[in-house]
């Protein structure tokens, strides 16, 4: 079993290299080996690798910068996944693709389900939705996993930014009127590995063949919080306290922290379909955060 992992150095990709290693021969590539803005580069790598499974963990994730680089963001997030799907179909391969809570406008009361109609409000969200649609437009085996507020011990993310700022500043102003579920990249990778392990199992799932389970699933931690609540939980972890990182936290509104890209007020996704279909449940966000912080060498 050959698994082509695209985006090996990203938050999720780095974790996937480890969780997928027991499932087959993992072929990890990064932007130096596959240029996602170049269709010929994508096709060449896939045709050389001839994988049974393509896992696309790469994306243009600079949400605010995307507002000024919509063409590049669309090429990477919107067009590239469709090309991967086309090449996968030629090989009769499965595509696993990651998407985002930002495909929704955030106006719903309560958690979003897979049945809710997307309505992105920024360029990043629009390009990620285009990527979902590009994969779905190809008659190919596919699983699209929407996640939210991803963080980890590598790369650029909210957790690492807060830890850095806590060392530099005595006061932090954090948005307190957007809600979501912070989701550890390792949990995303482990859940992906378990889904693929079920596909590779000779046994059926819930009396259905795996092919009947293709589609879109929400994959996030349980519970919900705000960016302020997320920050507070980070700074209240014992290892952070022991380092003397105790800046004053000040909750602010989204209007008080304007950014180029508009953010959804509600980014909470229901993972009920994932639980029902694959029997997978991610831990509540603050429990996962605690485990992650235990691993960081302060």
UniProtKB/TrEMBL annotation:
EC supergroup of this enzyme: oxidoreductase
Family: Belongs to the dTDP-4-dehydrorhamnose reductase family.
Functional note: Catalyzes the reduction of dTDP-6-deoxy-L-lyxo-4-hexulose to yield dTDP-L-rhamnose.
Domain RmlD-like substrate binding, first and last residues per copy: 1-296
Database matches in Pfam families: RmlD_sub_bind
Keyword vocabulary terms for this entry: NADP, Oxidoreductase
Entry GO MF terms: dTDP-4-dehydrorhamnose reductase activity
A single BP term in Gene Ontology: dTDP-rhamnose biosynthetic process
Annotated transmembrane regions: none
Name this polypeptide is given: dTDP-4-dehydrorhamnose reductase
Secretion signal, residue range per the UniProt entry: none
CDD domains assigned to the protein according to its UniProt record, in alphabetical order: dTDP_HR_like_SDR_e (cd05254)
InterPro entries in the cross-refs: dTDP_dehydrorham_reduct, NAD(P)-bd_dom_sf, RmlD-like-bd
Catalysed reactions listed for this entry: dTDP-beta-L-rhamnose + NADP(+) = dTDP-4-dehydro-beta-L-rhamnose + NADPH + H(+)
Cofactor binding note: Binds 1 Mg(2+) ion per monomer.
E.C. designation(s): 1.1.1.133
One term under GO cellular component: cytosol
Pathway as given in its UniProt record: Carbohydrate biosynthesis; dTDP-L-rhamnose biosynthesis
Required co-factors: Mg(2+)
